[in-house]
Amino acid sequence: MSNVFIVQTIIIVILAFVIFYLIIYNKSLKLEKRISKYSIDSIKDNSVSFFDLISNQYFNVVHKLTKALKKSHVMTKYATRYGKYVSYDNEKDVCSMDFVSNKIIICLLFIFIIFFARVIEGVFPSFIDFLISGLLGFFSIDIYFKFKDYIKKRQVEQELLNAIIIMNNAFRSGRSTMQAIEIVANELKGPIKQEFKKMHLEISYGLSLDVVFERFSKRVESEEVSYITSSLSILNKTGGNIIKVFSSIEKMLFNKRKLKQEMKSLTSSANMISKILLIMPFVFVMFITVLNPSYFTPLLNTTIGNLILFVIILIYGVYAFIVNRIMKVRF
Asked: Can you give the pTM of this predicted structure?
């Protein structure tokens, strides 16, 4: 207990110094604002704000850690999976290894937070606390990118038809493949703009059209892009008219989007009912807990209750899976 008290005292002293520094910094900013009325600002301003200073220090730590991690063959191979998230128009020199560095720093930050919280409570964190917080911090970026990939996929699928129409019109007007992709990158906005910029750069490096679209398909993981990639691969091997191929792709995407909209309108009521049925158990549990907080206590405090709770969760998971498979329509 004395060790915990010593650690608590050290943390409180550090927090006191931080608060004292922030108070002094705030007073200096107010004093500078008062004096600035009677002074002339220099032409060249090299001052950096407090948050910019912290941001710059953080990026310096990330870059130093990246240099150290690049010496490891295993980490270099692991970082390749984040290459598709590197933007070609970023202002800072960001590479795929920077994402791994951020994962390690966030992991250590989560471990520090759980350590800080447990010590404030008066106990030392256990190994399970360190393990769970470390894993959660390490994979938090992956969770964010999974969600970002889902949003990106939806946005790319919505704009893909416009991109194909623009490319087809460019081919009909006598433009080359390079020019058609460049037009799409300049005309459209959002994630598809970034993807076509990457495709334009890859073609300038000498990659063929079917290879470029195949890499695009792997980044987006969309069925529509896979269909376009297969069509271009066949076109590259057998030959043919690229205008007719893109016209057929344009017609296919238009019919598929029209069919999706019709199917969505026809199944909207059924989807609403299925979502309500999936939410209702949680609503009932919430109302029962409000009326009688100890009603579900046997499920949590007894062995038989834990077994019953596990069976309930299992049955609900199977039910949700079956409903999802029934309501899912593949085109």
From this structure: 0.62
- Show the domains of the chain with their CATH numbers: 2-25+59-138 (no CATH), 148-264 (1.20.81), 267-327 (no CATH)
**Per-residue pLDDT tens for 32-76?**
777 776 666 655 555 656 666 777 788 888 888 888 888 888 888
In SS3 terms, the chain reads as: CHHHHHHHHHHHHHHHHHHHHHHHHHHHHHHHHHHHHHCCCCCCCCCCCHHHHHHHHHHHHHHHHHHHHCCCHHHHHHHHHHHHHCCCCCCCCCCHHHHHHHHHHHHHHHHHHHHHHHHHHCCCCCHHHHHHHHHHHHCHHHHHHHHHHHHHHHHHHHHHHHHHHHHHHHHHCCCCHHHHHHHHHHHCCCHHHHHHHHHHHHHHCCCCHHHHHHHHHHHHCCHHHHHHHHHHHHHHHHCCCHHHHHHHHHHHHHHHHHHHHHHHHHCHHHHHHHHHHHHHHHHHHHHHHHHCCCCCHHHHHCHHHHHHHHHHHHHHHHHHHHHHHHHCCCC
